[in-house]
Prior knowledge:
The chain is α/β, with parallel strands linked by helices. Helix content is 40%, strand content 17%. Strands 3, 7, 8, 9, 10 and 11 form a six-stranded parallel beta sheet that branches. Strands 4-5-6 form a three-stranded antiparallel beta sheet. Strands 1-2 form a two-stranded antiparallel ribbon. Strand 4 and strand 5 form a beta hairpin.
Amino acid sequence: MKRKIAALLLCGILAFSMAACGAGNQPQGGQGENETESQETQDSESGETGSTQDVGTDASTGTEAPQAAGEQSSGNHVLIAYFSIPEDIDISGIDADAGASVVVKDGEALGNVQFMAQTIQETIGGDLFRIETTQQYPLDHDPLVDQAAEEQDADARPELSSHIENLEQYDTVFLGYPNWWGDMPQPLYTFLEEYDFSGKTIIPFCPHGGSGFSRTESTIAGLQPGADVSSNGFSISRNDVADSADEVAEWAQSLVH
C-alpha cells in the first residue's frame, strides 16, 4: 500500500516537472513579435511624417505639390500668394537678367517674385498660390510694360484664372508682386477685391526698379481693412534678387513664431 502511494506521488511530481519544463521552453511569440512590430510601425509612421513635411499644397487645387525641407509647424497656416511674369529670354549661360525680371535656378527661368516666393516656402513651409489671369501677358519686355501702363490708366480688373480653395485655413498671407509703374499690377487689385482677408496677417514682398513699395502697403490696407498688413514687408532691388536667397530666408524666418 505504501509502495502504491509512493508511486502515485512520484508520478505526480514527474508530471508537474514536465509541464513546468514545457512552459519554460515555449517561444515568447506574443510579446517579442509585438515589440518588433511596434518598432517597425513607429519607423514607418516616422517616414510618413517626414514625407508629409516635405510636401506642400497647391492652394488652388488642394493637391500635394513638391516642397523643400525646412517646413515649420506654422507652415500649415501660411499662404504664399504671388504674381510673377518671367519674360521669355535666352537663359543660356546666365544666372539672372534684372531687366527681364528673371532668375535662373537649376536651368529654369523663374520670375523675380516667383523665386522669392519659392525661397519663402523652402524656409518656412506653407502653400504656394500663383495669381494668374485668363488673358496671358506678353513675354517681351516692351509690350509687357506697355500693357501694364494701359491697364493702370484704365484702372482695369483683369479676370483671374486661379482661385484659392479653403482660404479659412490660413492665418498668414505672404503677398508678392512686382512694382509696375509705381503701383501693384492690376491683377493684384482683382485678387484683393475677390477675397476677404479679415483677421489674417498680410505680409507684402516686392522686387522693384528703384521705387521700393511705392506705398502699396497702404493700398493693400485700404482694400483689406479687416486685415493686419504687416509693416515688416520685404522690398529689394530687382538687380539683387538673384543673390537674395539668404536674405529672403532670414527675413521670412524672423516672422515665424
